[in-house]
Design goal:
The chain has helices spanning 34-37, 74-94, 138-148, 155-172, 177-184, 192-202, 221-244, 255-275, 288-299, and strands at residues 12-13, 19-20, 29-32, 45-47, 63-65, 109-113, 123-125, 128-132. The chain is α/β, with parallel strands linked by helices. The chain has a four-stranded antiparallel sheet. Strands 5-6-8-7 form a four-stranded mixed sheet, with helices on one face. α2 crosses α4 (155-172). It is globular. The two termini are 17 Å apart.
Length: 308
Amino acid sequence: MCPGCWSIVAPLTDPDGTLRCPTPECATAVVPCQNYVVEAVCNQYVAADAAPPQKLCQFCSLTAVIPDLSVNQNRQRWRDLEAAKRRVLYTLVKIGYPITPGDSGVVLSFAFKADGPEKVHTGHANGRITINLREADAVEREKARVHFGEPQRTLVGHFRHELGHYIWDRLVAGRDIAQFRERFGDERSPSYADALARHHRQGPPANWASGYVSAYATMHPWEDFAETFGAYLDMVSVLHTAQRFELVSRDERSFDQWLREYQRIGLIANEWNRDMGLLDLVPEVFTSVVSEKIRYVDSLRGDEPLGA
């Protein structure tokens, strides 16, 4: 991907050997990300005039901890994690959410770690998103998906959920907390620990689908926000792809139109998946309560057009 125009391109080679974006309006001189040159785990380019410490692309530079590459299969698992991370971050930036440091003090970074003497928990804390390397093992991930009853337990799904926690810290905490509590509840009561214990003990309420995108979202307002944020990114990504393949028009649309179009595409895709014996692409039920939560998530992003 070109860092100048954010397009997937095959660079041209100038007579002097310089690689250049082929898009005339861009024509940025580029070099491959160092994680491609050295590790073969990235497919992005970096502006050629970037200083040497910046030869990692924007997204690779956010990874603070990589797996132990001396362990068999870890390079492939790292490659899979980076591919999922790039896909999600591309959408995040494209529609106006921040990933660079701001005035909140929350700095985004990633750690990809395997269990050792201590178990690694996938999660988010103060901007650091940790993913257990086991999630990049398709067999282990499927076992966990079935055990926990999570229809969308994928690497992309993990990144979208955990980035929801990061966005809460970045754009909601201390800034928009009243609006958040009006829709998701008071995150202070019960405490997260008490809510987690109750969820493990009792499970979700029987009628959870009337107000939540998933059973796990009922656990605590923070998890409700993260699950809703993930569902919102699902919607945007699916509709952007549908636009590229001209399955839906590129006309400017309101949020309500986007939501209706996603539900329509979701019904069609679900039937296609069922034709093939696969899981539903869109398992959520978009009640009026859920729709208002998704609308709130949309309100937090910048001014980039949703359909860009």
